[in-house]
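Revision sheet: structure tokens.
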Amino acid sequence: MMMLPDSRAPARWHVADFADAIASGIDAQVALDREAQAVSGVDALDEVSLHPILASSLSAGGFGVHREQRYPSERHKRNRAEGRRCDLVLTPDGRPIQDPQAAATLFDEPNAVPLEDAFWLEVKTVAQFTPEGPNPSWSGELLGTVRSDVSKLARDTEILHAGLLIVLWTASPEIANNDLGVWQDRCLDRGLPIGAPSERILPLQDRLGNACCVLRVYPVHHL
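Predicted:
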């Protein structure tokens, strides 16, 4: 990951770096499942169960990974249990993330990364085939729910660096490319500010009907 000479300065975020780290971690998990002759593979995991693998992959790539962080615009709420949360917030070089409520106190981390300099990453996973069979909600999950994540990131004016990770477990890259193309067009038609994605394609051992993993990391800009 490229950094400015001063390690305390903001990182130059590149979504390709995230895609490389995540692809490496998922590929390693696929190899472990194959070696263990596991009955089910990584594509059988639900989204929440996949988060630890994503987090450890990004951590191995050199990033600080902070899960379930409140959106900056939600931090005025005194109760820390309240407010929408972002799946993964990334910092350079494994550094902690700043807690504005700890500023100028003994608990203020001098090396912490300000919220506006961190990278806010929402995650969405969709499987074409699940342990129960073909996923009847495949299109609805991809075309509907995922757009709401883009909107959340784009509308928080205190977030400067953001992105959406989509992980698709599918029978072929062609299916993923077609459906992601439809998703992109609908986002752009609605004025949602996604940028050009970084994509990685990984082969899977076909246990459920999913023969590959297609992951894309989309930059998300302000509305």
